[in-house]
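Repro:
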Amino acid sequence: MLSPFRLAAAGWHGLRLTLKPGHLPSIFGLVTATNTPAQLAAMRADLQAHPRAARALAAPFHLNVDVAALARLPEGTLGREFADFVAREGVEPRVLTDQALGESDWIPVHLYEVHDIWHVVTGIGTDVVSEVQILAFMLAQLPKTRMAPLAMGVALIRGALGHPDYEPADVLDAMARGREQGVNADLLFGVNWAEHWKRPLTEVRRDLGIRVLSVGIDMTSPVTPDREPDPVGTGARRNSPTASPRSSCSAPSPSSAPSSSPPAPPTPATPASA
């Protein structure tokens, strides 16, 4: 249970998120309010059952990402795809890594550091609905997290109250897709992505059991048979702590297939009367 103070803080930041979805300071506040020592201890106990996560907890590491160096890697590698993602989405990785410096427990530190990498590996975009999908993925992999269900609930409420870019059905669809990906994929917590920068992204996804089911951009992965990748909006994302996520999240209509029927013959012109 959250203390009255933490509960009030979570409610306040949740209200701010309802009024302004994707507001990063509110998201950070929600994380801080819900990361109680008891909750982190419960997450740690669950993670100890997974060998790779247990090794990471025993020997914590940090990801010092050199985006310029990753941009020089061959196309299709995880590192190059991450660098392209940062440039394309207007993401500033330091916003999350700087936030991680204020955490005393390595679990939230690690989750902050890998958040954008998870976007690339899962093929999930960065608009508001896609952020719901990545949270659903996280909740499926880390069931003891409290922030993810709260943030998803806020997005659902905001959609029900009326949002110009998404409806409750979009949020529910993102939840279902994120959960399906998270349940079927290997646990990503504790992966040292620095060991995989030079590997093809498709190979990394295959080894981790990740199938792209995204309402955002499917980056380099082949289109899945049941879903075409949806384009996301063009707004800037996390280039400052107050930057808003992409706001466009409506799915496009499927491309129309060329008709196999022959064109109708032209209608003969009617002679003009004298």
